[in-house]
Amino acid sequence: MVGDTIKSFKKVASGAIEPVKRIADDTTEQVRRIADGTIEPVRNFVDDNMEPVNRLADGTIMPIRLLTGSKSADDIPDNVDMEFREKIVVRTSLVGIIANILLAAVKALLGLLTNSIAITLDAVNNFTDALSSVVTIIGTKLAGKEPDKNHPFGYGRIEYLTTMIISAIIVYAGITALIDSVEKILEPEEATYSALSLGIMFVAILMKIALGNHFQSVGKKVNSSALVASGKDAYYDSLLSTSVLLSAIIFMAFGISLEAYVGILIAIFIAKAGLELIFEALDDILGRRADNELVEEIKKTICEEENVNGAYDLILHSYGPNRIVGSVHVEVPGDMTAVELDTMQRRIVRRVAEKHKVLIAAVGIYTIDNNPRAKAIRDTVLDIVFSHPEVIQAHGFRLDPVKRVMNLDMIIDYNAKDRDSIFEQIKAEVQEKYPNYTLEFVLDIDI
Questions:
Q1: Which of 129, 167, 246, 341 is the Cys-Cys partner for 277 at CB 3.0 to 4.6 Å?
Q2: C-alpha span between 406 and 408 (Å, rounded)
Q3: pTM for the complete prediction?
Q4: Cα atoms found within 13 Å of the Cα of residue 21, Cβ hemisphere only
């Protein structure tokens, strides 16, 4: 009886909940459409008006740039050498040091005069930004050291460490801002703003936007992850300062103090951005997957070489910005002489270095046997291999009819559930087809 009562209750409850659920779904959809309609005009306004803001912002740091001799990204030529690159990074960082020390001093004084903890914290944040620019200069100087016996590829990876240090400073700034904002909610203090203080904060925001633009554009032009990280930090600081400015305006107009609550949201955003930068730097240190566009361009250059039928196993090692060393296998006719192979390898190394600024340290050889019998076996084996949809690529096929050995490298998708089992299954199928051959198959890396 109790069971029947419960079932009846469930039916009644389901019947009552379903209409409510439909109404909620419909309401959510309508809210989403309204939000989209509201966001679109705002997005268009920002796109239409950001250029004048950027021009106005750039004017705030122009005297500092002229003082330090810092070039804009447009004035920097492509493919600069390491010595010139070091000068650019140092001068750009000097702009950040001077601008941030100036901002820190003005905001610290303004924070004391207005009794605003948010402005005072903003000053501390600007001081840490100046320190991050110092770290960038030190890292660039160390990374520019000439290779030596213990470090034959140079010290370029030090820049990845400096990026992590700057990212850690960003995380620290976010956590500090979060703690202080919570404390201000628990123990509120009334600030006293003036039109002059608001004007100073507005100029400070423009300076931060200008620093972000300058660091990001120059950093991307000379491939400096530390400068790019500093640029992102400057953008986040401009958001933080904007939240303080808006809170001050709302407080002056309506007497409502939102400073601490807005500070919490911005603090979380800044800390999250810093963590993302740390993970990016870790990827570089651990060895991230090479840029697909660069890989394909290098392979295309190699395949333009006469007698090269394919380029495989291209491995690129980054030893810092603009210092990439690699190796590759090429597929060539099996009747080429040692002299012809040597000449071809030297041409490949020279052309890749000239066109892509990448040093190919080793060129391995896969030979193609166009003997009709070998070709027929190769086609059959490849049909078996590619009957498995998880196989991305197969290359390096070689048949030794005297020793009865068969070679093949294959790449199986990393998303496949059990790559090793699929590989063994393929080997078993080929072995069943050619039981008299020894299979020397390799499960290759998807690079």
A1: 167
A2: 7
A3: 0.58
A4: 6
**Identity of the amino acid at 392:** I
| CA 323 – CA 316 distance, rounded (Å) | 10
In the structure encoding, which two tokens stand for residue 309, read together?
């039928």
Residue 390: CB partners within 8 Å, gap ≥ 6?
Answer: 412, 413, 416, 419, 422
Instruction: For the chain, list the domains and their CATH numbers.
Output: 45-286 (1.20.1510.10), 292-443 (3.30.70.1350)
pLDDT surpassing 90 at residue 1: no
Strand partners, 394: 410
Taking Cα atoms as reference points, which of 324, 319, 261, 244 lies closest to residue 291? 324
Q: Is the dihedral of CA 271, 273, 277, 280 positive or negative?
A: positive
Residue 446 dihedral angles phi and psi, to the nearest 5°: -85, 95
Q: Distances from the Cα of 329 to the Cαs of 283, 297, 315, 343, 397, in angstroms?
A: 25, 15, 10, 15, 12
Which residues, other chains included, contact 342 with Cβ-Cβ below 8 Å and sequence gap of 6+?
none
Q: Which residues contact 20 (CB under 8 A, 6 or more apart)?
A: none
The amino acid present at 167, given as its one-letter code, is S
Q: What is the pLDDT of residue 157?
A: 80
| Ordered DSSP codes for 263-301 | HHHHHHHHHHHHHHHHHHHHHHHH-PPPPHHHHHHHHHH
The DSSP result for 166-211, as a single string, is HHHHHHHHHHHHHHHHHHHHHS-------HHHHHHHHHHHHHHHHH
Token reading at 327 = 């190796």
> Residue 436: what residue type?
N
- The pair of structure tokens assigned to 20 is 């409510």
- Is residue 180 within 8 A of residue 117, CB to CB? The reply is yes
Following CA atoms 272, 278, 280, 281 in sequence, which dihedral angle do they give, to the nearest 10 degrees? Answer: 160
Tokens of 264: 């919490």
Per-residue pLDDT tens over the stretch 216-232: 889 888 888 778 888 88
CB 287 within 8 A of CB 317: yes
Average pLDDT value for the chain? 81
Q: What is the DSSP string of 401-440?
A: TTTTEEEEEEEE-TTSS-HHHHHHHHHHHHHHH-TTSEEE
